[in-house]
Design goal:
The chain has one domain: NAD(P)-binding Rossmann-like Domain (Rossmann fold, 3-Layer(aba) Sandwich), CATH 3.40.50. Helix content is about 40%, strand content about 15%. It has four helices and four strands, in the order βαβαβαβα. It comes from Chloropsis cyanopogon.
Length: about 130
């Protein structure tokens, strides 16, 4: 794989409870030399939608699940603080901005609220995460 030659000490994956995000987490866990820390974030880590992630975390002590709402700066700050508790001053090596949302609907049904929520999550969210 293209990531075979990559060694990261710590990685954070957003939207890690299903789909691609969960796939990234599984990939890192299976690496011959896995990261010391894999931070998997999702909106509701204790919820039913995060069951697969919870199962993985129970088997892998290097996998840490953190609640994160990427459209909420206060939530990002809290998540960053939790990551910092594990990493100390060493900093995060890799951020995978995977979380996103789509509400597919016909043009006539589109609303300003939904467009704004989508933009905040998909465009501003990754920018805030990077900060």
């Amino acid at each position: 794989s293209s990531m075979a030659g990559l060694h990261v000490r710590s990685v954070l994956v957003t939207g890690a409870n299903r789909g691609l995000g969960l796939g990234f987490v599984q990939h890192f866990l299976k690496m011959p030399n896995p990261p010391q820390w894999i931070f998997a974030t999702c909106r509701d880590p204790k919820g039913q939608k995060a069951q697969d992630l919870q199962n993985l975390a129970s088997k892998h002590p290097n996998l840490v699940i953190i609640a994160l709402e990427i459209a909420d700066p206060a939530s990002i700050k809290a998540a960053a603080a939790k990551v910092g508790e594990h990493l100390g001053g060493s900093g995060l090596n890799l951020l995978i901005n995977n979380a996103g949302m789509v509400k597919s609907k016909m043009l006539e049904a589109e609303t300003l609220e939904d467009m704004t929520e989508t933009y905040t999550t998909n465009t501003a969210g990754p920018l805030l995460m990077g900060q």
